[in-house]
Amino acid sequence: MRNLTFLIPVILLTGCSVINAFTMSKYDTGEHTIINSIRSLAEVSKETCTSVPQMKSLSKELYVESVKLKNYTSSLKENKEAATMAASLLDITKGLYDKYQKEEESVSELYCTLKLTTIENSSKAIQYSLARKPR
Amino acid sequence: MSVEKQLAELMGCTCPHVSGASAKVISYKKMFDEGSLSKSEYVELLKDIESEKIIDGTNEQLMQKEALNSALNALIAAASLVA
């Protein structure tokens, strides 16, 4: 215990951030698997933007995976940041899903590509930080 | 000042998130003006920029926490080795 006394000034100086760092959730394989699935699905789906029926099904898959991520992250303790990012990613994927369900004939290829690029980049950023959580 | 001019200025911002988002807005507007995107597609892509902003900001917070956690664990490990 005597060895840890040097930590007292560090804790006093930096306050809540130190406590928060100690209370953050650990790396979770389930969480990482879902975000990897969303990222990979978005990456390969860009090739199918020309096919509306295929995109209708893929957009549903992306949406379902995002709902899974939102539910999973929000069920873990001390996981506020991951849950916030999952909720925002869900907003993005839901837009694509709704578009293909409601206006499938008028969805442009350009919109599909831009939307999937956004989903891919956002999930890549989320995956990067989830993978670096303490083990 | 016009929105286009404001966005052009923001593109030169040193903050990568702001300049990146501004570049996207300009590019989407151009696509909409040319008729490559419908109004609803354009509006939704603009809304996505807001969601991306939340993801980027939260991501940074989480990375800082992770870095702090690693540093603290390293300090505790080092202190435990001291006789």
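qc> Chain A touches chain B through 39 residues (CB under 8 Å).
qc> done
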